[in-house]
Amino acid sequence: MFKMMALLILFSHGEGTIRAVWQQAPEELNARLARRVNTYNLIANSFVEALSKAATEFQIPMGITWVNKPAATGKLSLSWVGASVQEIIEEIAATQAGYQVRVSNGVVHISSPEIPPKQNFLLVRINKFAANHQPLPYAMRNLQDLVRLTVAPPSNQHSDLGQGSSTASNTDEPKIDLELDHASVEEILDSLLKVSARKVWIATFEEMTLPSVS
Questions:
Q1: 62-67 β-sheet, strand order
Q2: Has residue 15 been placed in a domain?
Q3: Which of 38, 159, 196, 214 keeps 20 to 30 A from 180, CA to CA?
Q4: pTM
Q5: Which of 48, 84, 51 is nearest to 68 (CA)?
Q6: Is residue 214 part of a domain?
Q7: What is the domain count for the chain?
Q8: Which of 107, 93, 8 lies closest to 47, judged by CA?
């Protein structure tokens, strides 16, 4: 059994660069992924950090869904010669068994197949999500509250959804406006990237050990 331990959105680039990237057509994201790099060296303290660094370096919008295991938290040192950006991302993902790379909603998604669909809160559909001229951290807290209410209504005292958090806001952070009906949590996160100054979202899952029954 899995529970979501954290739902984060992280900075990746300066705000001006992010907005320029999000104004591009999907074909331009494909062009970024197809771009070949003469040489690229990457050192990271974890699998997630490696993906985030690549997303930052090549300005790729990214959603990362991972299971917190020792193998995924070890240091990585990787090098490429003449590889495409997509190949780099796929090879980072391949350092962990079974991780998959797909592109949807204009975002590159990396995810673990270990998480059963019924326990993957990114697939939960929210009847109505709205951010009315709010800083992103407020919108994120609103999303997390809606997920909890959807998964575990007040009458249900037990939920597999762990505590969520988001990066702190600052007074200069732009306000966002977004309304979505019957969208999945993943679709909402992807949409928040498009209208905010953030570039990478990360959902961390933790395996729960059920008590043995004697």
A1: 2-10, 200-207, 62-67, 107-111, 100-104
A2: yes
A3: 159
A4: 0.81
A5: 48
A6: no
A7: 1
A8: 93
Q: 130, 81, 132, 117: which is closest to 205 by C-alpha?
A: 117
Q: Which domain holds residue 20?
A: 2-207
| Residue 204 neighbours by CB distance under 10 Å | 19
* N residues, the chain: 214
Nearest of 84, 104, 100, 106 to residue 32 by alpha carbon? 84
Whether 203 and 122 have beta carbons less than 8 Å apart is answered as yes
